[in-house]
Design brief:
Thiol Ester Dehydrase, Chain A, six-stranded antiparallel β-sheet, 15% helix
């Protein structure tokens, strides 16, 4: 029997080397989700960020949130998945902490609006119950079948 949460992750375009979600714990299709990423310590970028004191980069916390927002959007029962869905805008990004090897990052994402191929979302990340990142972001892609593309988004508009 297929696991619907595993299938939700399969809609991400990222290869395993650039996927910052290990599990989707809960999913309300088209609305919200909670996921997790385990910082293993063997990730190649931790060797240089920072030598002897590895920490998970804040921009990758944002990427993890964007990936989970993509899972939410791509599983909306009312709207077919968007082709080429990508992160296109960031607003109100706050990096409040980080994660270290061995820690689990809990990621939360909620879609706050949609217009054609544009998806707006709010995302957060937590480590040991403490918020380490929050952001508002936009994803955009092409609606299947009609070629409708989301308008370009400029931060601050």
């Amino acid at each position: 029997m297929p696991d619907p949460l595993h299938e939700a992750l399969s809609l991400l375009p990222h290869g395993p080397e650039f996927r910052f979600l290990d599990r989707v714990l809960s999913l309300v299709p088209g609305k919200s989700a909670i996921g997790e990423y385990q910082v293993r310590g063997d990730e190649y970028y931790l060797r240089g960020h920072f030598p002897g004191e590895p920490i998970f980069p804040g921009v990758l916390l944002v990427e993890a949130g964007a990936q989970l927002a993509g899972v939410v959007a791509q599983n909306d029962p009312a709207i077919p998945p968007l082709k080429g869905l990508k992160l296109t805008a960031l607003r109100v990004v706050k990096i409040l902490g980080t994660a270290r090897p061995g820690e689990t990052v809990r990621i939360e994402a909620a879609v706050t609006g949609r217009l054609g191929g544009l998806v707006q979302a709010e995302v957060s990340a937590f480590v040991a119950g403490m918020k380490v990142m929050s952001a508002e972001l936009a994803l955009s892609g092409t609606l299947e079948g009609n070629g409708d593309r989301a308008p370009s988004v400029t931060p601050g508009e």
